[in-house]
Design brief:
Blueprint lengths: L1 H7 L8 E2 L38 H5 L1 H7 L2 H30 L20 H12 L14 H29 L9 E3 L3 E6 L2 E10 L5 E15 L5 E9 L9 E2 L5 E6 L20 E10 L5 E9 L3 E3 L1 E3 L3 E3 L4 E3 L7 E3 L7 H11 L6 H23 L3 H6 L5 H21 L2 H7 L5 H22 L3 H6 L12 H11 L1
Parallel strand pairs: 3-11
Antiparallel strand pairs: 1-15, 2-4, 3-4, 4-8, 5-6, 5-7, 5-9, 9-10, 12-15, 13-14
Helix pairs in contact: 3-6, 4-5, 4-6, 8-10, 10-12
Length: 493
């Protein structure tokens, strides 16, 4: 365990390990039957086409592709059968010409010139065809100039033989050099893993190239096959959904020199948004992985495929590192290519994690506290109105208009609300707002001006004696008679 921790680092808490050869995969809650796969692990698609009817004639229209797609045993059978039938047919034509001219009966007559010398029967006619077709030319059997029909048959034999050779040999060459054989040296991990990477829940699998030759313009794609039912009631048995493996960032373009770990980040846009460790045992899905690239040696496009069912996705696992630095090169240990180890991973889905995060940190809207302050200011305003109604008529007239205290309290409540909102601002904004000459001083000057205007209007409305006592618009409290001064003091206390 200590050696494993030194290899992986202290930040990984290894709970248990599992490898394809040395260990067993983590136990499942309940064993399942054999899962019907859409794509096998070797990339073969389990699809059979039936009830084609009259559409089978389309295969003959593309005969070359049909022969290439056939299995090897059928290719060899057609190859041998085509050459055998062609040779027997052409040998029969030479024998028919010799028979119609009577060359078979006069073969030993030295004074007679046959169409083909030394052709006595069908085996000798077959040997003459083989010598001509294979350009062996032993020299014992040869065509003469006394047989124009033989010359025409010789030309037809040469053209037909070239066509058959080009078709069958070309078919066998393409069959042997198919790029799908290059896919045999591209490896995929036996299991996929789900664990945390860079703080996000991520689906991961591994891909590797066993050859030193590169895959040019290698690109990888993932499809999720899952049955679902539409809101209209239509059942889709194999609905295909795209899994993002880095289309926006370019991570799907691979430089496949050493084994790479392909990642799909599970977020709100992912089909696995509500997938958890508990629900993965009840889900049924299949992840199809498609790797495409150009073979460097032949220039042909190659495609490798594999798939992962829900039983092959390990929750809370991560792949072993396989690359180590040696003297002057990097070494890849393919014995650990399929091996995984268990790491601490939350068992909840991304959707559940986001809901728990919202529940654990609720936000209190500031409008609640503001409404409380507004209510208190309104209550104060109402209390002041009651006090104003108890004053004598002269003092009510001195104070000016009836709505003056209300305006004053509204301005004060606005100032308190603004002070409350300033307290909610960050420290930098509070410092900026506290600089002299800002909006608070302007607001104070406006308030003072508004307070002075009603007072000046009320002084203008006083009798001449009181105007003289007020000192020409200054503060009049010091010049009021003792009775009025006492009534003012009683009012504000």
């Amino acid at each position: 365990m200590s050696a494993l921790r030194r290899k992986l680092g202290d930040e990984y808490q290894v709970v248990s390990t599992s490898a394809s050869g040395g260990g067993l995969p983590p136990p499942r809650s309940a064993p399942r039957g054999k899962r019907q796969r859409f794509v096998d692990k070797n990339g073969r698609c389990n699809v059979q086409h039936g009830n084609l009817g009259g559409e089978t004639s389309r295969y003959l229209s593309d005969l070359f592709t049909t022969l290439v797609d056939l299995k090897w045993r059928w290719n060899l059978f057609i190859f041998i059968l085509t050459y055998t039938v062609a040779w027997l047919f052409m040998a029969s034509m030479w024998w028919v010409i010799a028979y119609m001219r009577g060359d078979l009966n006069k073969a030993h007559d030295d004074s007679y010139t046959p169409c083909v010398a030394n052709v006595y029967n069908f085996p000798s006619a077959f040997l003459f065809f083989i010598e001509t077709e294979a350009t062996i030319g032993y020299g014992y059997r040869y065509i003469t100039d006394k047989c124009p029909e033989g010359i025409i048959l010789f030309l037809f034999q040469s053209i037909l033989g070239s066509i058959v050779d080009a078709f069958l040999i070309g078919c066998m060459f393409i069959k042997m050099s198919q790029p799908k054989k290059r896919a045999e040296t591209l490896m995929f991990s036996e299991h996929a893993a789900i664990s945390m990477r860079d703080g996000k829940l991520t689906l991961m699998f591994r891909v590797g190239n066993l050859r030193n030759s590169h895959m040019v313009s290698a690109q990888i794609r993932c499809k999720l096959l899952k049955s679902r039912q539409t809101p209209e009631g239509e059942f889709l048995p194999l609905d295909q959904l795209e899994l993002d493996v880095g289309f926006s960032t370019g991570a799907d373009q691979l430089f496949l020199v050493s084994p790479l770990t392909i990642c799909h980040v599970i977020d709100s846009k992912s089909p696995f948004y509500d997938l958890s460790q508990r629900s993965i045992h009840t889900e049924q899905f299949e992840i199809v992985v498609i790797l495409e690239g150009i073979v460097e040696t032949t220039g042909m496009t190659c495609q490798a495929r594999t798939s992962y069912t829900e039983d092959e996705v390990l929750w809370g696992h991560r792949f072993f590192p396989v690359i180590s630095l040696e003297e002057g090169f990097f070494k890849v240990d393919y014995s650990q290519f399929h091996a995984t180890f268990e790491v601490p991973t939350p068992p909840y889905s991304v959707k559940e994690q986001e809901e728990m995060l919202l529940m654990s940190s609720p936000l209190i809207p500031p409008a609640v506290s503001n409404s409380k302050e507004r209510n208190s200011s309104v209550e104060c305003l109402d209390g002041l109105d009651e006090v104003g109604t108890k004053l004598p008529s002269k003092l009510q007239k001195i104070t000016g208009r009836d709505d003056f205290p209300k305006k004053l309290l509204r301005m004060s409540s606005t100032t308190s609300e603004k002070a409350y909102s300033m307290g909610d601002l960050p420290m930098k904004l509070q410092r900026i707002s506290s600089v002299p000459g800002n909006s608070e001083e302007k607001l104070g000057s406006k308030t003072t001006k508004m307070m002075s205007d009603p007072m000046s209007q009320s002084v203008a409305e006083l009798p001449p004696k009181l105007q003289k006592l007020s000192g020409g618009g200054g503060r009049m409290e010091g010049n009021l008679p003792p009775k009025l001064r006492k009534m003012n003091s009683d009012r504000f206390t």
